[in-house]
Amino acid sequence: MLFVGCLLEGRLPTLSALPHDGGTRLMSVMKRLSGILQAKANKVLDKAEDPRETLDLSYEKQLEQLQQVRRSVADVATARKRIELQAQQLQQSAAKLQEQARQAMSQGREDLAREALQRRAGIANQLQDLETQHQQVAAQEQKLIATTQRLQAQVESFRTQKETIKATYTAAKAQSTIDETLSGISEEMSDAGLALQRAKDKVENMQARAGAVDELLASGALTDLTQPVDSIQAELDKTSTNAQVEAELAQLKAEQLGTAPPAGALSAPTPPPEQDQQQEAPQTGGNPA
Amino acid sequence: MIVRILGEGQYELPANYHDHLAELDEELAKAIEANDEAAFSATLDALIHEIKSAGTPVELDRFIPSNMILPSLDTPLFEVKELLDEGTIGEQG
Fold first, then answer.
1. A28 touches chain B (CB under 8 A)
2. Which one of A16, A106, A200, B40 has the fewest beta carbons within 10 angstroms of its own beta carbon?
3. Edge-to-edge strand list for the sheet holding B9-12
4. pTM for this structure?
């Protein structure tokens, strides 16, 4: 409730329009956001004594920001490409492990085959995670490209407009025009600033995750069967993927034998015959009369 | 009335649209308060749809401050909360 009211009190005329309904109504989200962005916008502006100078300074800042957004587009593209490369590497590792599992089985080494399949299941999880990240980073890239295009167009028209304003400037007359133009342009820059910040956060986050995958790939933990996977995560992965591994093992066994596995052969051992008869007795008997 | 959709630009709406937007805006505030992700994105979706269909985009060469600002369509709830909190924390700090 108190968000922007106290934040901007006395600084921005628009905030006097905020609703004060004795706390029964929640404060408008759209006006709160507007206040926050305008507070940011006030920080963006370097107010000079002569408003004409402020126009020039704002133009400089706009150019600077356009540069930053362009760099950010490049950073996000780099992050995206890195994810794509890692996905490729992981797919290769998965294929290799699949082949190793096959080889291990043909040599009668079920333990090694199991290990390989478990690692391959771990890679499948990583790949899924990468896919999500890829979608996010690609969306971010598109947004930033749109921001760049908008800024680019605005920088050009702002330059023309500020020269016109300066040429026809008389202190009393031009002040309100300048104020409105400056508020507009600085709000625009704050919006782009938010997009920049989001992109920066996302790229940092991607880099941390990508670094972890790189380490995993470099350590050979995903491909080298001589190195035991002993981390807690690996244990957890094993537990969660056990069923799938069992199923795949069964399939490999079947391939070796050239037959399909009997249904439920691995998951549920057949109970001994005596137990069967005991269980059957009450069922056939039904309810005692 | 000028409304900005973050990351997308501004729209100009007829002044008589204010009350209708205010209703949706209040629903949005309730959803944020209740931490209701589904209600939040549904309301945000409705708001943006209204603004885009009833408003006209403000030309890129027109520099004018907005009366209201809205997050973009796919903004997750936590990001909006962060943004709103930033306003509060920024003042305290």
1. yes
2. A16
3. B56-57, B9-12, B2-5, B68-70
4. 0.68
